[in-house]
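debug: dumping io for the single-chain case to check the tokenizer round-trip. Nothing else runs in this session.
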Amino acid sequence: METVSREEVKASGSTAPSRPYDPAYDPLKSATPGQGRDYAPTYWIDTAGEPPEDDGPVSGDMDADVVIIGSGFTGLSAAIFLAREHGIKATVLEANRVSWGCSTRNGGQAQCASGRLKRSQWIQRYGLDAALKLHEECLAGMATFKALISDIDCDPQPGGHLYVAHRDKVMPSLEKEARLLRNTFGYDARILDAETVKRDWMGDQEAAGAMHEPEGIGIHAGKLAFGYHRKARELGVKIHPSSPVMGFETRGGVHYLQTPGGVVKARAVGIATGGYTSQSLHPSLKNRLLPILSNSIVTRRLTDDEIASCNLWTHQVITDTRILRHYYRLLPDKRLQIGSRSAITGREAPQKKYEDQLIHDVHRKFPTLQGIQIDYSWWGWVDVSHDMMPRIHQPDSRETVYYALGYGGNGVMYSAQAGRRLAQWIAGQGQELDLPIFTSRLPYPNVREMVESRAFAPFRRLGQRMLYRWYHLKDEVL
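debug: decoded output
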């Protein structure tokens, strides 16, 4: 396999790509995410400035105390907390360019959530006591996130999160959830009627009302990723791009990670590869995640008249109540960004129809923007666990291997807290963590014993197609 030489490092100190972006990459089909591939053509990368200096690809066998696989939000924050709170200087291995995956392809929405389930669903699954503790974990995570970004110029847009009912029939359940948040969790969620939403917040023509929650921040994903990168290296963290892990073997308690440039030996390994986790990376992860695609588009800058015509008076982060939800907001430079779920496979992802669907959704929500120019369009893989909740866990107590995965699209904020918890595990303090997301492994597609054989795994994509059709019916028809 071709490797990147140190002569290919830019004057800025950032390792240059040796291969173009692969728009059809699929983590269920490819053994690795590639080597040295360029970034996806996102708004975040185009407007973040030059990537920071790194330590170049692995260029020979080396020893490391701790290796973090993956240089996105989670991996870099774990490295930061290992250095800050535990005095451990990690080595970060990245297959392509730094923060090449989820961290520079998301919607930049930091919400007070962990995984895809609502608080009421936490109570149903875990009981009230555990649900209350999970809520406190989310609040602590938001505090961690705010502190971590406080000295990073990532264009924060604070103020909360607007959760928009896309149909009248959704409002009763939204009102019930808001009462639960206020009365049980002490979280000041409030209900807004359709007229108030469209007049005072934003003129989404689908809005039948909304729930506003106090915690929520929009950020510039590229600037945040590069800020984490600089912060980590200032703390002594080594970051090696173009260094995919192509083999992972543990002997005598030591981990041997094979990269194209050499073998990296480590005492402990943290896996933070998100939706770009290959099936062959480590046995504890095979068939444990369902990577799903999410598309985003960003318009040209809106004029003041266009903003007024859409009543776009808020810069807060917004999602709607669809199962196949939309996430959207007005960016600081007056562009509209919107994203949603899209293709099933990597091979299908480049098809123009998925971008066209998002453009149609913009017109449906904001009719006065009919025909507006789209300046950016991209897609990326989201790491969804089979029970819709993340895990920060040590899957085998006999091995010093840990992972933080499965955010289900809510990783911008919680990745900072997950990185902190991953650092605790690596530093030998994981037994102090007693919530379900810390004490259990990522589940298989079905928790029943008959599926533990993994026989269901090849049919995940077929099941996903069927589910998407059902979700579309529930969202738009039934």
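debug: round-trip ok. The chain is about 30% helix and 20% strand.
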